[in-house]
Amino acid sequence: MPSGASPGGRVALTLRLIACLTTAEIARGFLVAEPTIAQRNVRAKRTLAQAGVPFEVPGPAERVDRLGSVLEVVYLVFNEGYSATAGDDWMRPTLCAEALRLGRVLAGLMPDEAEVRLGFPDEIQASRLRARTEPSGEPVLLLDQDRQPTGHESRRFTPGWPRLRRRLSSSSTARSRSRWPWVPPPVSSSSTSSSALPP
Predict the structure, then answer these.
(1) Which domains does the chain have, with CATH numbers?
(2) Positive or negative: CA dihedral 86, 94, 112, 118
(3) What is the tens place of the pLDDT at every residue in 70-86?
(4) Distance CA 30, CA 118 (A)
(5) Rounded CA gap, 138 and 58, in Å?
(6) Which partner from 47, 51, 77, 180 sits 20 to 30 angstroms from 89, CA to CA?
(7) Mean of the pLDDT values across residues 113-138?
(8) Is 107:157 a contact under the CB 8 Å cutoff?
């Protein structure tokens, strides 16, 4: 993760140079036009070159400062794998797997950081990957997807995951699997009450 550039610039440049996403894929992740990302990368490279920023492993303090950008890179790589920008395939599982691997490495390096310790949404999303497509690769509509647990180990990274999973499972079995009737309400970052969980 290059330092010296703006947060948006270093995220976009990392996605291009390290993750090897195309400009179109990065633009889709940022919800901006391709020329915007192209110009952002040019400016970031110019800034790094003019400042003579070395390529080196950041120290502990710098890791904390760059954590937000690193999480954004991991999320956007997963996002491209979960819903491909172009091509014949609905998803790109190798990108999802790489994003999950990076997230787990980050969890090992910074286990005390709240943003990492709470777990990535990617881990829960990844548990649905196999339910989203037929063996032939054809997409499965949301209402037709199997809601049963897929054996994914996302609970490793979220301390409250076993309890949440039990509550979700009990809610799922009490309702029709084909209707997806319960949508979790938004939970504020300051709230830890279990009232947001389904009955």
Answers:
(1) 1-56 (1.10.10.10), 57-163 (no CATH)
(2) positive
(3) 999 999 999 999 999 99
(4) 24
(5) 43
(6) 180
(7) 79
(8) yes
